[in-house]
Design a protein that fits this description.
CATH class of the largest domain: Alpha Beta
Number of helices: 10
């Protein structure tokens, strides 16, 4: 009984404390409201008194109406200047915060890349390793088809099933263009980017691209495609060339958040990128209408205005060293619809890293 009584007394005391705190909060709120209202009333009265005093000065001809209006105008201009200055201070604070965030994200990307591949920043190029050497390797391999791919202004589509080496081939193209022409890769659009950071893109991350669409963010991917189409409209051939990489286009046309954007993206990429100085590398399982955004009516243009490299694998795990390429032109200017080629062992991101380190 004593325990029950003590518990009951304790609960009543706690309820009483809560009621006192609640009442105190209500009272303070009312007091603050009354104080604020009093300040507003006093301010209004002061303005009324000032206005009546100004009118009296005009009536007594101590000051003309024009001079009074000029004073009002100067006061209004001063208040506008103060307001604009305050806005600028907020804008400066926002820009400083944005800069800090961007720098932090950049440092984080570098730190992540170093953790993933700590030796990448420390690799030293062998003596004599130059961009010219890489160009000669590309030109000397099987009639120079790799060099034709690297220097082409057409979008490059790397195709194939799982384990065929699509991503490593695409990354190798980006790295060659960086090593030879110093073209920066500005973005990697990949719904599985959070997984590929440590694998397919581990040597591209130190080049500081923006990684878009991670964790199946198809809305962000659609927005990136819309921005790309607008960018191609604004950029010209005289702008500094850039690279962008677009992964897993196979299923994007099936995603509600980006299917319309994919269609527009593919259609404009066939005609706009060359004059925008943007070099696209796209990855897909196939080059069907569905994989290219269901851009109907553009089949012939897709075949002639893109380079398609089809890779294959052994048992879906080991990439084969042979591939098929379409979209290049022969010496007579005729389109090569399909040609069997081989991918050399040195055309791999780890092997190409030394050329970028030599820059």
């Amino acid at each position: 009984k004593d325990e029950i009584d003590n518990e009951s007394s304790f609960q009543r005391l706690e309820y009483f404390k809560t009621a006192i705190k609640r009442q105190g909060l209500i009272t303070r709120t009312e007091r603050d409201l009354q104080s604020h209202e009093s300040e507003r009333i006093n301010d209004k009265h002061k303005k009324d008194i000032d206005r009546r005093a100004d009118n009296l000065l005009v009536q007594e001809r101590y000051i003309s109406l024009e001079e009074l209006q000029q004073q009002y105008q100067r006061q209004s201009e001063l208040e506008d200047l103060q307001f604009n200055n305050t806005k600028k201070q907020f804008a400066v604070a926002d820009s400083v915060a944005d800069k800090s965030i961007a720098e932090n994200l950049r440092d984080k990307r570098k730190a992540d890349a170093e953790n993933i591949n700590p030796s990448s920043e420390k690799v030293k190029a062998p003596q004599g390793t130059t961009a010219q050497e890489l160009v000669q390797l590309l030109k000397n391999h099987e009639g120079g088809w790799l060099w034709d791919v690297i220097e082409s202004t057409k979008p490059v589509w790397v195709l194939g099933g799982q384990g065929s080496g699509k991503s490593s081939f695409a990354a190798s193209i980006v790295m060659c263009r960086k090593a030879i022409f110093d073209w920066n890769i500005t973005s990697i659009v990949d719904a599985h980017g959070h997984k590929n950071r440590a694998k397919a893109w581990k040597l591209l991350i130190p080049l500081e691209p923006e990684l878009i669409g991670e964790r199946n963010d198809y809305l962000a991917i659609g927005e990136a495609m819309d921005e790309a189409v607008q960018r191609w409209s604004d950029r010209t051939e005289n702008d500094t060339p850039i690279q962008t990489l677009w992964d897993e286009l196979t299923q994007l046309s099936l995603q509600d958040d980006c299917k319309e954007s994919v269609k527009k993206f593919v259609r404009h990429s066939l005609t706009d990128v060359r004059k925008a100085a943007e070099y696209l590398v796209c990855i897909s399982h196939a080059f069907t209408n569905a994989a290219s955004g269901n851009a109907e009516g553009f089949n012939d243009l897709r075949q002639s205005e893109t380079i398609q490299i089809k890779r294959k694998s052994k048992n879906g795990r080991v990439p084969l060293n042979h591939a098929e390429i379409s979209g290049l032109y022969n010496d007579d200017g005729n389109l090569i619809e399909s040609k069997r080629v081989t991918v050399p062992d040195w055309f791999y991101p780890d092997s190409l890293l030394r050329f970028i380190s030599a820059r």
